Amino acid sequence: MTPHEFTSPGGAKMGRRGFLDLVLGGGIIALFGAIVYPLLRFVIPPKNPEAAASSVVAAKVGELAPNSGKIFRFGKDPAILILTSSGQYRAFTAICTHLDCTVQYRGDLEQIWCACHNGHYDLSGKNISGPPPAPLLPYSVTVRGDQIIVSKA
Description:
4-stranded antiparallel sheet, alpha+beta, 6-stranded antiparallel sheet
């Protein structure tokens, strides 16, 4: 074996040119994979099994104090559950209809509020002031045992 000979992974001896061909070929395959794999991941997005959810457990009974709210996940989007001061549960999508910011409940005003552009919704989800052009999407609320279940209306 001369100093310019190498042994291939299969055990065959190869010269300097063969070794460089092997390294460059492997590099080209790795480069091709590094370019194509992210493109395929972008074109074919992963499946989200939660996107098709029609109902979720939003909270447990007693978790919310009267005149308070809670943000929870409804599929891939945020939603808001509110326990009014009169003891009624109400649920809406928590995405503001103006620019898709997440809304929150303000107990001092007893309104749903979007902090991005000071949009206000009443407790029926209707837009009452600020820039939101449409009401919030309401969900139906059911109490089963100690669970509060929110489902699409």
